[in-house]
Amino acid sequence: MRPVAIIGIGKTAFGAFPERDLRSLAVEAGEKCLADAHVSPSQVEAYYLGNFAGPSFVGQNHLAPYIAGAMGITGVPATRFEAACASSGSAFYHAVSSVAAGLNDVVLVAGVEKMTSQTTPKVTEILAGAGDTCGEVRAGATFPALFAMIARRHMYQYGTTREMLASVAVKNHENGAKNPLAHMRKVITMEQALKGKPISEPLTVFDCSLISDGAAAVLIAPLERASEFTDKPVKVLGVAQTSDYVALDQKDDITTFRAVTAAAQKAYKMAGVTAQDIQFAEVHDCFTIAEIIAIEDLGFVKKGDGGPYELAGCTKLTGPLPINTSGGLKSKGHPVGATGVGQLCDLVIQLRGEAGERQLAKHSLGLAQNLGGSGATAVVTILGVA
Amino acid sequence: MTSGVVYTETVVHAAPEQFVADAPYQLAIVSLEGGGRLTVRVEGERVAIGDRVEFVEDRNGISFFRKA
């Protein structure tokens, strides 16, 4: 297997953009990414696109060639990957596989979602399609409901509190307020977070990530060729994708995501590092409880210690293990298909030392964790300064 | 499918489009007496983790349970 590097990144702002269509967002991210690496569309050998529900949100199918063509990329494999909220994490995993195997050299990986053109109940219904529509969804489960049931069980088994959940939201908004590309750039207080409108008990609106439009892209190439394109290459040290049952009621223990623990172990092994070596991470905080479980499943803290660790401020920019320095899905926004690649862009920004007032002192080894559905797909990626 | 114990639960306030009229409603994952788990609606009194619940009926493909 050939070592692979990220040689360029490009992101749109995440937010609600009524005047923008899906294609224009994906094209903007892709063109910024190619410009970042000084690569022309004719040099791109394959286009991998993560998108969860373009057909449902905007009525457009055949998305990968539709977007690639608009960028002047034709005559190459252009394929859409769908794995719920891990769609672009999955696209990245498969793109890296192709470059590592020697099938392609310069590959563009993107993610996009255009969600805000639908009403919130309709968005809720479309997102629920990532659950088991013959079981939990038919009974009335939404994604907030599934994660609310996960939260209730975590609280019951480990004593996790509402304040611990809220502390994740407060911290992520604090970070997102400093991120020029974040959707909701405002600080919130613990009191606000605790008194938010109930969405699915015990989760309030402040425990839930945002409904956003946005796109992100990364350009990858064999590490041995990286210096042709950039003087700041980032090495893909480890990447793994794993699966589990879709329905929550089929999982033995819903306080852990087995797919995440498995993907993390594989990625750590591939990278030759341990959880304790990781300096910072972007994790999939679709709901506050998901960040708490993520830091447990990734091995950063012991099972059940995620809540107290968050409440103690250990994951803040100034803490021993900064988590979601971008603001996370909570504040940066969660255009679901763009989230996985967006996390990778955010890691690269830190690794390159370009995070401005959010810049960490230690920034040579970072991890991203992208979750699909209530844990049926997980992608864990470890990036390091090359 | 007669009775079971609540493994976890939530009360849904923000419902998907087809269930907006039902909200708020309680949803639970029940560990069934005969083994396995099922996601169900709970009617009547609200239940908590560990509560015993019993099957009421299936309506429109949804299993309804209530506190035993």
Supply the key terms.
heterodimer, A: 386 residues, alpha/beta, Peroxisomal Thiolase, Chain A, domain 1, 2 domains, nine-stranded mixed sheet, two-stranded antiparallel ribbon, 13 helices, 18% strand, globular, B: 68 residues, mainly beta, OB fold (Dihydrolipoamide Acetyltransferase, E2P), five-stranded mixed β-barrel
Report the sheet with the most strands of chain A, covering strand number, pairing sense and barrel closure.
Answer: 9 strands, mixed
Q: How far is it from the N-terminal to the C-terminal residue of chain A, by CA?
A: 17 Å
CATH topology of chain B, which one? Answer: OB fold (Dihydrolipoamide Acetyltransferase, E2P)
Unreliable stretches of chain B: none
Rg over alpha carbons of chain B: 11 Å
Could you give the order of the helices and strands of chain B? EEEEE
Determine the mean pLDDT of chain B: 96
Number of helices of chain A: 13
Spell out the CATH superfamily of the largest domain in chain A.
Thiolase/Chalcone synthase
Question: What would you say about this model in short?
Answer:
The complex is a heterodimer of chains A (386) and B (68). Chain A is α/β, with parallel strands linked by helices.
Structure description:
- The complex is a heterodimer of chains A (386) and B (68).
- In chain A, a hairpin with a 4-residue loop joins strand 10 and strand 11.
- Chain A is globular, with a radius of gyration of 19 Å.
- The longest helix of chain A is centred in the C-terminal third of the chain and has 17 residues, at 336-352.
- Chain A is an alpha/beta fold and 386 residues long.
- Chain A has helices at 22-36, 54-58, 63-70, 87-101, 120-128, 143-158, 162-176, 190-194, 258-271, 288-297, 306-311, 328-331, 336-352, and strands at 4-11, 46-50, 78-81, 107-114, 198-200, 203-204, 213-222, 234-243, 280-282, 365-372, 377-385.
- Chain A contains 13 helices and 11 strands.
- Chain A folds into 2 domains: 4-119 and 212-234, Peroxisomal Thiolase, Chain A, domain 1 (3-Layer(aba) Sandwich); 140-209 and 237-385, Thiolase/Chalcone synthase (Peroxisomal Thiolase, Chain A, domain 1).
- Chain B is mostly beta strands.
- Chain B has a single domain (3-67), classed as OB fold (Dihydrolipoamide Acetyltransferase, E2P).
- Chain B contains no helices and 5 strands.
- Chain B has strands at 3-12, 25-32, 37-42, 52-59, 62-67.
- Chain B has a 5-stranded mixed β-barrel with strand order 1-2-3-5-4.
- Chain B starts with a strand and ends with a strand.
- The mean pLDDT of chain B is 96.
